Amino acid sequence: MPNAKYVFVTGGVTSSLGKGIISASLAKLLQARGLRTTIQKFDPYINVDPGTLNPYEHGECYVTEDGAETDLDLGHYERFLNIKTSQTNNVTSGRIYQSVIEKERRGDFLGKTVQVIPHITNEIKERMLLLGKGNEHDVVITEIGGTVGDIESLPYIEAVRQLRWELGRENCVVIHLTLVPFLSAAKELKTKPTQHSVKTLMESGINADVLVCRTEHELSDDLRKKLALFCNVEQEAVIQSIDVKTIYDVPILMYEEGLDKVVMKRLEIDLDTKPDLAQWQSFLKRHKHPKSSVTIGLIGKYVELQDSYKSILESFVHAGASNEVEVKVVPLHSSDLDEKDVHNKFESFDGVLVAPGFGERGIEGKINAIKYVREQKIPFFGICLGMQMAVIEYARNVLQLPRANSVEMDADTPHPVISLMDEQRNIANKGGTMRLGAWACAIEKNTLLHKIYNSDYTEERHRHRYEFNDAYYDQFNKYGMVASGVNPQTKLVEAIELLSHPWFVGVQYHPEYRSTVAQPHPLFVDFVNACNNYAQSKK
Length: 539
Ligand code: GLN
Hints:
The protein is of the alpha/beta class. It is 37% helix and 22% strand. The protein contains 18 helices and 23 strands. Strands 13-12-14-15-23-22-21-18-19 form a nine-stranded mixed β-sheet, with helices on both faces. Strands 5-2-6-1-7-10-11 form a seven-stranded parallel β-sheet, sandwiched between helices. It has a three-stranded mixed β-sheet with strand order 16-17-20, covered by helices on one side. Helix 4 crosses helix 5 (116-130). The longest helix is centred in the last third of the chain and has 17 residues, at 522-538. The protein starts with a strand and ends with a helix. Bound molecules: glutamine. Glutamine (GLN) binds at residues 356-358, 384-385, 408, 463-466.
């Protein structure tokens, strides 16, 4: 008898249907009923983790407390559930193969031929069950990346098929997320793609227990009946997932559709409690009924792609609700910002956030943006590369070091105000070698940072190679840019602020990875509040 119950979520017809949100919403409902629930994601690609992937390929790379570079869906899991995920919650084919090959090299397979079935599937199964061992969780939801029918997903589907037998039907349920497209010419919703993807799943030996149907229009009773009949599920297990304005509505919709009930029935979980969604509802109310509105410029290199800054955008949603302020984020590409047009473009902004990033492209635009908001006293928030750019701008324009730079952008700069950490100097491998995960930060008294955190200490997540160069610290300090957060052991600068500015904060770490619906991040909350004050003062 397993310790936990397992839910597997597969996807059909097309990618980008929002498996992560459906999984997180179901998890939220089960959690709100008192079940200890966690989620994990299995990705079929060969990269060992998404850390080496370009944001255009894969959106944001989400970093966990333990320093794992993971899929952005883990961000949704943490934001919805207010739990901490770890390396265990995200597994790729690359990691599975790496571990099987290491075992083979050690001789663990005792002369046997190593094959996809059973060796790769065994490794997958072992990892799928890991979070359910040790009595920490009642339910483990596993989201399987990709779409059913993809060659690379096959070992995962096979692993689920085997687990259904091994765990027993009452301990294991499969949800298939699919698309029911609307053909505008025929003015009709079409079930055929769903029938085909359910059939593909059946060819691999799995009969879905629950169908979640993404749709732009309501599914009629007849259509639900038809889907149930052709797809071998009961009618109550045909769940409609209609398009909504905010992802935070999805748990409520899934509750109304009875997704959590059907899943619990299949898993023989006998609970007559109603989910306690009071906190969630109150967040939604504040989110949907703001009292004022602010416009914040998001300056970055990958702004065309919404997913690149997912956690930042969601942190603004949490902070907006907390302030009862609508946050309109206007993305601006940093390479389009020259000194002249910054003024025109920024006129409508009540605050500016300069985003994290890598490489040289667009950095002069970021520096122009920062100079403007510093001089105009517009609230400024710099994250990681954004903080580094604020340091460079100050060095160039206030400390009068015109060629100051980061050695990432100019290895020969005479003033490397941002430089490489010693332990980074001899690293050749790119994957998993940055300063990653949660690090301690001592917060200086009498700083804005201290007021915001209301604490002398915090721990925040990192993902970078370069650092504020200590050698310049006294010069910056003399001119009013101070280190408000410092790592207590290494003395590395974690946060800077400007004494002469109402709200000018740069952080070397990524606060956006820690903001959740239940606990909006204090830095975002205070920044939105500062932008709101600035907006009021302009009126
Ligand atoms: N490129 C910078 C570094 O590696 C900043 C990284 C980031 O913004 N995440 O230090």
